[in-house]
C-alpha cells in the first residue's frame, strides 16, 4: 500500500501543474469495453442499464462487442456472410438499440463497434450451430500450425494470408460501417494466434510463389515473419481505407498487445507501424496488469510510439481493486494519454462482481478519477490530412496487381506495395495535388490525385509500358554541401551506427554517431563530408555493421536505377570491407527521391558467400571492396554487372529501379577470429549515379596548399608549406583492386 499512497500523492501534485489531456481543455476519452459474453446488451433492459451506467459515471464512450466468434449481434446484410448470433432473440438488433440509447439522450455517448477479426470459433469439439457460419462453410480459410493443427490458443482463426478469408472479414466490416451510425470501428484479435501459425495451404502457396521457394518455411524464418506481419498490415490498410471512404469521420481503433515486443515477435502484430503510417486512428494497448511497475513501463513505451496517431491506454480493471485502477488511470492521464479504455463494464474490478458491486465500483472510479463530464477529444488529422487510395490494375488484362510498388510525392515515407487485393492507400496526405505512381514488371503508371483534408480520394493506377528516358550522365544524389548543422546533423542519409536492429548488438555504445564535419581528411573536393564513428564489440562470431539509410531526415532511402553505376567516396582510419544493400523493389519515383522501406534486400558487390566458415546458420554480408586506411577511395558499383547475394531476398536484381538501403562494414578478421575493436572513423561523400565507366586504375590528384593560392581559390590541403600529393583510389566494380 505504500506505493499506492505515495503515487497517489504524486498524481495529486501533478494535477496542480495541469500536465495533460483532460485538464488542458482538449477533452479526454473515457471508455469502457462491453463484451458479448455476459451481461451488457442481450436485451433492451441490459442496453438501457449499460448506457445509464456510462452516463451516470461520466464514461463518454462505449466499445461494444458486436462480433464475438464469426457471428453478428446486429442485423447483417449481404454480401456480409456472418450469421446472426444465437445469443439474442432473432429480431433484437443490439447495435441499433445501443446507438439509439447512447446518441439520443444528453450527454451523447459515443458508440464504437468492436469486432473480433480473425478468431471465428472457440469450441474444439462442437462446431457452430449455423450452417452458414464461416467455420462450417470454409474450413479451408483456417490457419494452421507447422504441424497442421487448426485449433490454436483461443480457438480457430482464419488465416490473414488467405485472400478470400480477408474478403469475408472486410465485407463484414463494410456492412456495419455502411448501415449503422457508429462513432468508431474497433478491431480486436487483429493478429496471428502465435508465431507458429500462418501455415494455411493457400497462404504458403502464395508465399512460396512470391519468393520462388518450395516446401514449408520455419516459423522463425525472418522473411516468413515479415511476410505474415505484412498480411495483417496490408489487410488493415486496405479495409480501413474502404471504411473511411464510406464514413470519413469514423475513428478506427485496434485493441493490441500491451507489450510491443511481444506483439511484434509472438503474434506478428506491428501496431506501432500502423500508428506511424496512420492506418489506424487509435491504438489501445491492453495493459491488463495488477503490478504497477509493468503497467507503468508499458504505458511509457506505448505513449512514446504514438507516431502520427494516438495511443489510448487499455486498463485492466478486472485484475485490480478499484483504488489501484484509479492509480493506473491517473498515471496514464499524467503521462499525457488523451484517453483510457476500461476492461470491462461487466467486470470492473478483481474478484466476484454482481450488479451491486458493479455499480459501487463504477461510482468509485467516477468519484476518484472522473467526477465531471467531458467530451472525447477531437482527432485533428481528420481536419488536416486526407487519404489517397485505389487499385493497381494490369492495363492488358484488366486484373488487379499484387506487389506493385506504389509511391506518392507528398513527403518522405510514402511508399508501399499493393496488397493481394490490388489496393494501395496513403493515410496522412497533406492537402494539395500530388503524383501517385506504381510500377511492376517494368511497367509504370502515374496519375495526379488531389488530397482534401478530411476526405478520401480514389485513383486507380493502370500499368502501361514504361516510357524510355535518358537521364543525365551523372546525377549527384548528395555531396552534403547544402546540409546545415543542427537538426539534420547526425541523420543525413544515414542513421547512427547502432540504429539498425540487425547489427545493434555488434557495436559498442560509444562511439556511435553520424555527423557533418567541415574538417574531413585532405584529398576531397568541397567543404563538408559525413563522418561516422563506431567500434565493434569484442568476441563476436559475426562482426559487421549495417549502416542504414532508413528514415533519415535528409535523403532517406534514395532511389537508384539498377542499370547504371552507383558510386561514392570513402575514407577510413582502418582497413575494412565494404558492400552495399539494395531493395530490389521497382521504386517508380525520380532518381534520388525517397523510395521508402518496402521490398526485400540484396547484397551488392560482395564476392564471398553469405555464411562464414565455422559459424553455421549466420547471415553475414559477403566481403565486398577492401577499403585501405588513410586514403580517399571512390567505390564504383556497376549495378548490372555486380555479384548479388541474398540478404533477405532472392539473390538477384530484377527491377529497373531499387532503393539504396545500407552500407555494410566488415572488419579484417584474422584466422584466429581476432579483429579490431578500436574506433573506426569513416568519412563519406559524393554519392552519385553515373553512366561513365569507372577508372581502371588509381588516379593521382595534386591538391594545392591553401596558403599557395589566391584568396577565394583556397581548398583542402595536406601540406601547409606548398604542394600536397594525395592518392585517391578508384576501384573497379567487378575486379576490385585490393
Q: Any overview of this molecule?
A:
With 738 residues, the chain is α/β, with parallel strands linked by helices. 21% of the residues lie in helices and 27% in strands. The protein has 13 helices and 35 strands. The chain has an 8-stranded parallel barrel, surrounded by 7 helices. Strands 13, 14, 15, 16, 17, 18, 19 and 20 form an 8-stranded mixed β-sheet that branches. Strands 21, 22, 23, 26, 30, 33, 34 and 35 form an 8-stranded mixed β-sheet that branches. Helix 3 (94-103) links the parallel strand 2 (61-67) and strand 3 (110-116). Helix 11 (322-334) runs parallel beside helix 12.
Q: What are the salient characteristics of this protein?
A:
738 residues; disordered C terminus; 8-stranded parallel beta barrel; disordered N terminus; 8-stranded mixed β-sheet; single chain; alpha/beta; 27% strand; 21% helix; globular; 35 strands
Q: Which runs of at least 5 residues are low in confidence (pLDDT < 50)?
A: 1-24, 697-738
Q: For the report, how would you describe the main beta sheet?
A: 8 strands, parallel, barrel
* Radius of gyration of CA atoms, rounded to a whole number: 29 Å
Name the shape in a single word: globular
Quick summary of this structure?
By secondary structure, the protein is α/β, with parallel strands linked by helices. Helix content is 21%, strand content 27%. The protein contains 13 helices and 35 strands.
Amino acid at each position: 500500500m505504500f506505493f499506492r499512497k505515495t503515487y497517489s500523492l504524486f498524481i495529486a501534485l501533478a494535477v496542480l501543474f495541469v500536465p495533460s489531456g483532460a485538464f488542458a481543455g482538449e477533452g479526454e476519452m473515457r471508455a469502457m469495453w462491453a463484451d458479448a459474453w455476459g451481461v451488457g446488451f442481450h436485451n433492451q433492459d441490459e442496453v438501457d442499464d449499460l448506457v445509464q451506467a456510462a452516463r451516470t459515471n461520466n464514461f463518454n464512450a462505449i466499445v461494444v462487442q458486436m462480433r464475438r466468434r464469426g457471428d453478428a449481434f446486429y442485423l447483417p446484410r449481404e454480401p456480409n456472410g456472418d450469421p446472426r448470433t444465437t445469443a439474442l432473440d432473432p429480431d433484437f438488433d443490439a447495435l441499433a438499440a445501443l446507438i439509439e440509447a447512447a446518441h439520443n439522450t444528453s450527454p451523447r455517448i459515443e458508440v464504437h463497434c468492436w469486432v473480433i477479426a480473425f478468431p471465428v470459433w472457440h469450441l474444439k469439439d462442437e462446431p457452430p450451430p449455423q450452417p452458414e457460419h464461416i467455420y462450417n462453410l470454409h474450413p479451408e480459410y483456417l490457419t494452421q500450425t507447422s504441424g497442421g493443427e487448426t485449433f490454436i490458443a483461443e480457438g480457430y482463426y482464419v488465416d490473414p494470408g488467405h485472400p478470400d478469408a480477408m474478403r469475408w472479414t472486410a465485407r463484414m466490416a463494410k456492412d456495419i460501417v455502411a448501415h449503422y451510425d457508429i462513432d468508431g470501428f474497433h478491431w480486436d484479435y487483429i493478429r496471428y494466434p502465435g508465431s507458429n501459425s500462418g501455415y494455411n495451404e493457400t497462404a504458403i502457396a502464395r508465399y512460396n510463389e512470391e519468393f520462388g521457394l518450395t516446401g514449408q518455411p520455419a516459423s522463425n524464418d525472418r522473411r516468413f515473419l515479415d511476410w505474415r506481419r505484412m498480411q495483417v498490415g496490408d489487410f488493415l490498410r486496405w479495409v480501413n481505407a474502404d471504411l473511411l471512404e464510406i464514413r470519413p469521420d469514423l475513428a478506427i481503433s485496434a485493441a493490441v498487445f500491451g507489450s510491443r515486443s511481444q506483439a511484434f515477435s509472438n503474434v506478428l502484430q506491428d501496431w506501432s507501424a500502423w500508428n506511424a503510417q496512420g492506418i489506424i486512428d487509435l491504438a489501445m494497448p491492453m495493459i491488463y496488469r495488477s503490478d504497477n511497475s509493468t503497467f507503468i513501463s508499458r504505458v511509457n513505451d506505448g505513449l512514446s510510439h504514438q507516431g502520427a496517431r494516438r495511443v489510448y491506454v487499455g486498463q485492466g480493471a478486472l485484475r485490480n481493486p478499484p483504488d489501484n485502477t484509479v492509480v493506473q488511470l491517473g498515471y496514464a492521464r499524467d503521462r499525457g494519454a488523451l484517453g483510457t479504455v476500461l476492461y470491462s463494464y461487466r467486470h470492473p474490478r478483481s474478484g466476484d462482481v454482481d450488479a451491486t458491486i458493479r455499480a459501487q465500483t463504477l461510482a468509485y472510479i467516477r468519484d476518484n478519477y472522473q467526477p465531471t463530464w467531458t467530451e472525447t477529444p477531437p482527432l485533428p488529422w481528420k481536419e488536416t490530412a486526407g487519404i489517397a487510395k485505389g487499385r493497381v490494375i494490369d492495363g492488358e488484362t484488366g486484373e488487379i496487381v499484387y506487389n506493385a510498388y506504389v509511391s506518392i510525392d507528398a513527403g518522405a515515407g510514402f511508399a508501399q506495395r499493393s496488397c493481394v487485393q490490388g489496393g494501395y492507400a496513403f493515410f496522412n496526405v497533406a492537402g494539395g495535388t500530388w503524383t501517385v505512381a506504381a510500377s511492376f514488371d517494368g511497367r509504370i503508371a502515374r496519375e495526379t490525385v488531389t488530397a482534401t483534408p478530411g476526405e478520401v480520394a480514389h485513383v486507380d493506377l493502370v500499368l502501361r509500358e514504361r516510357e524510355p528516358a535518358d537521364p543525365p550522365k551523372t546525377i549527384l544524389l548528395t555531396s552534403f554541401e547544402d546540409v546545415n548543422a543542427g537538426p539534420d546533423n547526425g541523420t543525413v542519409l544515414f542513421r547512427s551506427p547502432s540504429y539498425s536492429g540487425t547489427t545493434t548488438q555488434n557495436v559498442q555504445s560509444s562511439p556511435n554517431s553520424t555527423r557533418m564535419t567541415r574538417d574531413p581528411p585532405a584529398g576531397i573536393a568541397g567543404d563538408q563530408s559525413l563522418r561516422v564513428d563506431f567500434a565493434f564489440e569484442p568476441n563476436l562470431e559475426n562482426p559487421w555493421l549495417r549502416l542504414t539509410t532508413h528514415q533519415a531526415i535528409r535523403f532517406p532511402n534514395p532511389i537508384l536505377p539498377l542499370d547504371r553505376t552507383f558510386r561514392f567516396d570513402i575514407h577510413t582510419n582502418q582497413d575494412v570491407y565494404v558492400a552495399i544493400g539494395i531493395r530490389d523493389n521497382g521504386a517508380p519515383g525520380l532518381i534520388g527521391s525517397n523510395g521508402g522501406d518496402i521490398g526485400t534486400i540484396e547484397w551488392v558487390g560482395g564476392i564471398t558467400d553469405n555464411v562464414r566458415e565455422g559459424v553455421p546458420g549466420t547471415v553475414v554480408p559477403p566481403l565486398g571492396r577492401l577499403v585501405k586506411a588513410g586514403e580517399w577511395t571512390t567505390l564504383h558499383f556497376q549495378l548490372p554487372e555486380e555479384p548479388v547475394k541474398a540478404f533477405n531476398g532472392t539473390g538477384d536484381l530484377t527491377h529497373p529501379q531499387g532503393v539504396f538501403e545500407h552500407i555494410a562494414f566488415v572488419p579484417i578478421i584474422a584466422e584466429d577470429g581476432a579483429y579490431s575493436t578500436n574506433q573506426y572513423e569513416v568519412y563519406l561523400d559524393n554519392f552519385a549515379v553515373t553512366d561513365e565507366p569507372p577508372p581502371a586504375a588509381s588516379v593521382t590528384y595534386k591538391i594545392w596548399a591553401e596558403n599557395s593560392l589566391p584568396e577565394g581559390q583556397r581548398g583542402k590541403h595536406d601540406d601547409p608549406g606548398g604542394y600536397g600529393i594525395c592518392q585517391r583510389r578508384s576501384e573497379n566494380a567487378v575486379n576490385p583492386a585490393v
